[in-house]
Amino acid sequence: MSVKKHLDLRRVVVTGLGLVNSMGFDVPTVWERLLAGQSGVRRVNNLSNYMDSFQSIHPLPDDFPKVAGQIVDFDLKELLQTRKKNPSKEDLKQIKYTDRFTQFALAASLEAVQDSGLDLENEDPERAGVIIATGMGGVGSWEEQIVKLIHEGVRRVSPFLVPKMIPNLAAGNVSISFKAKGPNIALSTACAAGAHAIGMAYRSIQMGEADLMATGGTEAAITLLTMTGFYRMGALATGSNDHPEAASRPFDTRRNGFVMSEGSGVLVLEELDHALRRGANIYGEIIGFGMTGDAHHITDPHIEGAKRCILLALKDADISPQEVDYINPHATATPVGDRNEAKALLQIFQEANHRPLVSATKSMTGHLLGAAGAVEAIFSILAMKHGMVPPTINLDDLDPECEGFDLVPGKAREAKIRYALSNSFGFGGTNATLVFKSFDG
Question: How far is CA 102 from CA 175, 187, 214, 239, in A?
Fold first, then answer.
């Protein structure tokens, strides 16, 4: 008997989805472009409002990456007015007093709640909660204000710096916006954060702490300082400034690092009976969550940590490896990361004599850090719901050490998906795996 059956835990379904990234500001647009194999990575010429003055003193190195999954022409006010009935003055004030990472989360949450069909005025606010993660928080505001401090003095620093900067303010502002009085927390577990948030929201509903949760991740870390930090540690893709769409190359022999991206993915999770009573559209069911620590190295992932995480998620889901139809891997396009994840997956699935479809969607989106797990969970759910697997692009020469799976190169493919698995791994050796099931009552 499974642990869930033994404890009589509640079932949790997905009833709303919201996306903001460099490929679009809503789920249908992003999904269409993803299936078409279109990259959201573009050349970035201005990383901050002090870039020009900085470069006059310290020119950037020739190999500094000037490509990213950067969002352009984003207007939260416009999205508020189209996605929320009668936005209040408080809603509009949030724009002025929030960092970009919070604004992305608000936009994605608005779409997810609207998509869910929930009328929150008729819901018990104490049974609705928010868990939204971020890897970096308001680093853009921090960077902007420290420049002001150095050049203009203490009195020129914004009194809103702290509420713009701290990582839990995305969750806090979403909670305020929707009057959600249940669990209200943020997680910051590097690039596994979005998946951890979904997993913990799943647990909250399972255990009866809430009936509804808005959950996911958000990130806005495309700044000069942050990109310099990743560049100096050798983590970013280089050599692609003249062809940005080809910069992110998971599992390819020419991969040499990840592409920084920004945006948000938010899901509405709901207790099954609650969703059925109101006749909700159900995208799928979340049935498994695993999390482990490598206890190995702060940046280099470990095969055993990833493998244990995946197996724990499958055990929680009460399914075997042979039942998994689709995997959305972490696959950031770093040499060590892709290789170790591939080996962990191969050890599990080759032993089970099973070959699920695998597609590395970061080849199109780039790496959204703390939002990546949430965005890729949404892609996994959409693949399952629509029976379409997005492609892996830029896979021109598969690394022999990553062979063993059908990576759906170049072109999306129809496939019947009953169970989908999504991996997220982060610095510090933190790992998260989610398992979703198609909903059949």
Answer: 12, 14, 14, 32
Question: Largest Cα–Cα distance in the chain?
Answer: 67
pLDDT score recorded for residue 1: 41
**Predicted local distance difference test score (pLDDT) of residue 8:** 81
Distance CA 258, CA 361 (A): 12
The half-sphere exposure of 122 on its side-chain side, counting CA atoms within 13 A, is 5
Beta strands in 199-318 (DSSP E): 212-219, 263-271, 284-293
Q: Does residue 259 sit in the same domain as residue 221?
A: yes
What is the number of domains present in the chain? Answer: 2
Catalytic residue among 274, 367, 386, 402: 367
Is 302 designated active site?
no
* Residue with token string 């790992």: 431
Residues 82 and 226 reside in one and the same domain? yes
- Whether 146 is in a domain gets the answer yes
Catalytic residue among 196, 274, 302, 330: 330
Range list of H helices, 219-284? 224-232, 272-277
In a domain, 7, yes or no: no
Q: Is the dihedral of CA 6, 327, 383, 132 positive or negative?
A: positive
253 three-state secondary structure: coil
Q: What per-residue string of b and e applies to 231-253 under the rule 16 or more CB within 10 Å gives b?
A: beeebbbbebeeebbbbbbbbbe
pLDDT surpasses 80 at 93: no
Q: Which two tokens stand for residue 328?
A: 């959305």
State yes or no: is 309 an active-site residue: no
Determine the number of helices (DSSP H) and then strands (DSSP E) in the chain.
16, 14
Q: Is residue 1 part of a domain?
A: no
Say if 5 falls within a structural domain. Answer: no
Q: Judge if 188 and 97 occupy the same domain.
A: yes
pLDDT over 80 at 91, yes or no = no
CATH number at residue 419: 3.40.47.10
State whether 171 and 315 are in the same domain.
no
In which domain, by residue range, is 404 found? 292-437
Are 135 and 170 a contacting pair, CB within 8 Å? no
162 lies in the same domain as 247: yes
- Domain finish residue from 226, 245, 277: 277
191 is catalytic: yes
Among 191, 196, 274, 402, the active-site one is: 191
Looking at the fold, whether 359 and 223 belong to one and the same domain comes out as: no
When mean pLDDT is compared across 41-45, 243-247, 332-336, 419-423, the lowest value belongs to: 41-45
On whether both 104 and 222 belong to a single domain, the answer is yes
